[in-house]
Design a protein that fits this description.
Elements (H helix, E strand, L loop, with lengths): L1 H15 L6 H27 L6 H15 L5 H23 L4 H27 L4 E2 L6 H23 L2 H11 L1 H6 L4 H23 L5 E2 L1 H4 L3 H13 L6 H19 L4 H15 L3 H16 L1
Antiparallel strand pairs: 1-2
Helix pairs in contact: 2-6, 2-7, 2-9, 2-11, 2-12, 3-4, 3-5, 3-9, 4-9, 6-9, 7-9, 11-12, 11-13, 11-14
C-alpha cells in the first residue's frame, strides 16, 4: 500500500508540473513521458521473454498515422480507440506468423517489419493519394498532450505491475528462461507470447497516436524513424528490462542525454549512442537495478 500511495503522490506532482513549466520544459516532459511509456510497454513482452523486438516504431508510427488520417473525420477519443484497434490487429497478424521465430531471426524480422510498414505507407501516399505528408489539425495544447501521455504511462506501469503478479507474468518469465521447460510445464507458448505482444503493441500504438498532434505535420520518414526503436531498447536494457521500474529508470537519464547530444553534436550523436548501446550490453547486461543489487549483496557478504 505504501508503494501505491507514493506512486499516486508522485503522479499528482508530475501532473501539476506543467502549470509552472515553460513551453520548452513541457516539451521535455512530453518526451520523457513518451519514452518511459514506450520502454515500459516494450518490456511487457520483450523484457520477460527476452525476444528483442525492434518493431516499436512500426506501432508508434501506425498510431501517429491513424490520427493523421482520421483527425478531420472522427472525434479525437474515437480516433485513439481506432488507433489502438489497428495496433492490436497488426500485432495479432504479425504475432501469429512470427512468434515461432526466436533469437536473431526475430530481431531481424521486427526490424524489417518497421521498414516494411514505412515503405507500404510511402507507396500508398505517393501512388494513391498523390501526396506524402499529412497535417494534423487538432485543438490540443502541449499541456494536454503531456497529461494524456502521463496517464498512458501510469496505465502502462500499472498494467506491467499487475501482469508481473499474475500467472501471465510467471509464464512469460518461464518462457524467457527456457521455452522447452515452459512447454513441458503446460504453458501455452503461442497464446502467452501473443497476448503479451498484442498488449505491448496497443500501448506503443497509443503512445504514437497521443504524441502525434505535437508535430502538426507527419510523414513516414518522421514517424517511422528507427531511432525510436533503438532508443527504447537501450533505455529498457539500461534500467533493467525485466524489472517494473527498470525501463523508466533507464528512460529518464538516457532521454536527457539524447536531447543534449542531438542538440550539441548533431553529426556525431548516432555514433555516441551506438557506443553507449554496446557499453550497456557488455557492462550492465541485466540493467542498473540488477547491478546495484549485485553490489549490495557482495557488500553484505563481505561485512
Amino acid at each position: 500500500m505504501r508503494v501505491i500511495a507514493i506512486s499516486l503522490v508522485a503522479l499528482i506532482a508530475l501532473a501539476l508540473v506543467p502549470l509552472v513549466a515553460s513551453d520548452y520544459q513541457i516539451g521535455l516532459l512530453i518526451g520523457l513521458a513518451t519514452y518511459v511509456t514506450l520502454a515500459t510497454a516494450w518490456s511487457l513482452f520483450s523484457g520477460h521473454t527476452r525476444y528483442i523486438s525492434l518493431a516499436t516504431v512500426a506501432f508508434y508510427g501506425i498510431g501517429a498515422y491513424t490520427v493523421a488520417v482520421l483527425n478531420e473525420t472522427l472525434p479525437y477519443p474515437i480516433v485513439l480507440l481506432v488507433a489502438g484497434l489497428v495496433g492490436a490487429v497488426v500485432a495479432l497478424l504479425v504475432g501469429l506468423s512470427t512468434l515461432r521465430l526466436s533469437g536473431v531471426y526475430f530481431v531481424i524480422f521486427t526490424f524489417g517489419l518497421a521498414e516494411l510498414v514505412r515503405q507500404l505507407i510511402t507507396w500508398y501516399e505517393v501512388n494513391v493519394t498523390g501526396t506524402l505528408g499529412r497535417y494534423i489539425f487538432l485543438d490540443i495544447t502541449a499541456r494536454e498532450i503531456y497529461w494524456q501521455m502521463l496517464a498512458l504511462g501510469a496505465v502502462t506501469i500499472a498494467l506491467a505491475a499487475y501482469i508481473q503478479r499474475r500467472r501471465l507474468g510467471l509464464a512469460l518469465r518461464v518462457i524467457g528462461d527456457d521455452e522447452t521447460v515452459a512447454s513441458h510445464a503446460g504453458i501455452n507458448l503461442a497464446q502467452t507470447k501473443l497476448l503479451a505482444f498484442v498488449l505491448s503493441a496497443i500501448l506503443l500504438t497509443l503512445a504514437g497516436a497521443i504524441v502525434s498532434p505535437r508535430w502538426v505535420y507527419v510523414e513516414p520518414s518522421i514517424v517511422f524513424n528507427p531511432t525510436v526503436s533503438f532508443l527504447t531498447v537501450i533505455m529498457a536494457l539500461l534500467g533493467g528490462a525485466n524489472r517494473l521500474w527498470g525501463p523508466a529508470l533507464g528512460a529518464v537519464p538516457l532521454f536527457l542525454v539524447f536531447e543534449w547530444l542531438s542538440a550539441d553534436f548533431p553529426d556525431t550523436y548516432p555514433i555516441i549512442m551506438g557506443l553507449l548501446f554496446i557499453g550497456v550490453v557488455f557492462l550492465l547486461p541485466n540493467g542498473v537495478i540488477a547491478g546495484l543489487e549485485s553490489l549490495r549483496n557482495k557488500w553484505t557478504r563481505q561485512t
